[in-house]
Hints:
This protein has 631 residues and is α/β, with parallel strands linked by helices.
Amino acid sequence: MKIAIGQLIVKAANCAENFHKMQEQILDAIENQAHLIIFPEMALPGYFIGDTWEQLSFLQDCEYYHKKILRLSDKIDIIFGSVGVDWQKKNEDGRVRKYNAIYCASKGNFIINSKTKYPFWIKSLMPNYREFDDSRYFYDLRKLASDNNSKLEELYEPLKLKLNGKVIKIGVSICEDAWSDDYSNNPILTFNKKYKHDFFLNLSASPYTLAKKEKREKLFCKISKYCNTSLFYVNCVGVQNLGKTIYGFDGSSTFYSNKGKVIEIGEFFSESLRFFEFDLSRKTLISKQSFLNERNKLDKASELQFSLEYILRSCLNEWNIKKVVIGLSGGIDSALSAVLFTRVLGNKNVYLINMPSQFNSELTKNAAKKLADNLQCPFAFIPIDESIKYTKDQINKVSFSHSNEKIEVNSFVFENIQARDRSGRILAAVAAALGGVFVCNANKSEMTVGYSTLYGDQAGFMAPLADLWKQDVYLLSHHYNKHIFKKQVIPNETLQVVPSAELSENHNVMENKGDPLNYPYHDLLFSSWVEHWNRKTPEDCLKAYLKNNLATLIGCESKLIENLFPNVHAFINDLERWWTLYQGMGAFKRVQAPPVIALSRRAFGNDHREHIGRVTFSAGYIKIKSKILKE
Length: 631
C-alpha cells in the first residue's frame, strides 16, 4: 500500500488556502500512484482560531470545502482532520454541536462510522490545560458515549478501506487521544483491545516546545509496542496564535513500528509530501529513502535559533509586516532582537535607533553603533535629554483644581519617563512614519517580575524574546557569533557589560552597577514558579532552602545560593521581593504585554493564565516565616 504523508502548513481560519494546499498535494499523490494520503488534525480549518468556532458561516465554509475534497477522491483515498458538525444537536454552551473529527473521502463519498452514524471519527479526549481549551468548542466521544449510556469503545470501529480486494483496517486517533496518562480512558489501548488494526493513525496539531519531541517519541514508542501495531503520527507545520501567545507547529511527523523502530517521515518546521510503501503482510513501513530530521542535529541553542527564526518569519509574512524599528541600547536583549529581525527581514528593513540620555555610557552607545555597522542596518542616534527634561519640568508645574496636592517627579518616575519617551514617543513615531512596527525587547526574566515600564520598553507589536530567560538570551547571542556569523557581530562590549537599564546614576555600567537580578539564580527560581508542572511557591522554596535542597529543586549550583544569601533572612527578603512583583505589578504588566512567541513548556499569555489581585502568601509559608523570626 503506497501512502502519502502530507505535512501541511495550516493557516488558522483559512479554509480556502488550506484546501488549495491540500489539493496540490492530493494531485501530486495521485500522479505518484499513492493509494492513500493522510493530512494532520484540523488541516482544513486550523486549530487555534479562538471564537471563530462560534461563527455559523465559518462552519458552513468548512462543509463547502469538505465537498470539494470529496471530488478529489475518485483515484485516491483522503484522510484529513476537520470539524464535524451536527446541526440538529447542541453543545453544552447552547451552540451547535461540533466535533474535532477525522474524515476519510473515498470514491466520492465520506466513509460512515456505523457506530455513531457520522461521516467522521470523533476525538475522544479534550485537552484543557496549558494553551488548550478544546471543551469550550467541541463535544467529545466520551460525552457522546455517556449520552448514549454506552462505553467509549462501543462508538468506535476501525476505518476500513479496500485495496485490491483486501480490507485495510486503520485505527484512528487524534492528538490528545495518545496523551492519555492522566485520563480515566486510554482510547488507543481500549480500541486496540477490541479490534485488530493494520496500523494506527494519530493526526495532530501539536504546538512546538523545547524537548517535546523526545517525550513524544517515548510515548508513541510505548503505545505502538504495547499494541503490537505500527503507528503514523502526522503533525502540521506553520504558526497559529491565541492572541497573546504565538505557537509554532514543528511537523516532525514520524512512523513508529510495533518493534519500537522510529522513522522520520516529516522534517522539522518544514512542509513536505512524502511517499512510503506499507507492507500489509508484515505490518511495517518499507522506506527506500533515509530522511534526516533537522531537529536531530540541533543542540539547544541551534534549536532555539531555528525555531525562533521560523516562527518569526512566518508571523511577519502572514501579517504582511515589512519593516521593524528596534530601540538599540547596546545591551544584550536589543542586540539579539536586531540579529533576529535582520536574519528574517534583511538588514535594509530593520531600523536601529539608539536614544541616549545623560545616564548612557559611551561604552553602550559605541556598542550599539558597532552592532548596527556589523549588520549594515539603518541606524540613528536620537538623544532624549531635552524631551525628558521638558516632561519632568512640565509635570512638576502641574496644579490641580479642587485639590491642594502637589506632585513632584522623583527619580523612579523620571526613569519611567525615559523609557516611555523612547518607546511611546520616538519608536512609535518612527515606525509609523516608515510604515512599519516597533519591537518589545523584554525577556522572560523581566516579564516574570515586571522589570520593565508599562507603555515604555514593554510596548511593541511583539515580544519575540519573552519566552527566553536571560541566560538563554546570552546562549543564543554567543551561538549567532560562533556558529551562524562565525565572527564577532554582537560586540564583546555588549556580551560583557553588566546588564543595566541605564536610567539613573544607580545604573552606571562603568561602575559595574546593573540590574538587581542575579540571572543565573533568579532565572531558575522564576522558572520554578512559572514552568514547573506543579508550580512552586515561596512555601516550597523556603522549605527547600531550610532543608538545603533548594539547588536541587530549581536546578542551580548550591554554592551560588550560599554566596548570594548570608543567612535565611536575606533569602526571605529576596524571595518576597520578587514573588510580590511576580504576583502583583508583574501581572498588571503581563496582561497588557505584546504577544509572546512560545518556546518553553509554559509561555506567558494563554499558556499562563492568571488573575490580577492582592498578593498573598500561603498559610504554610507564614507559619514557617513566623517561626524563623521568633528564633
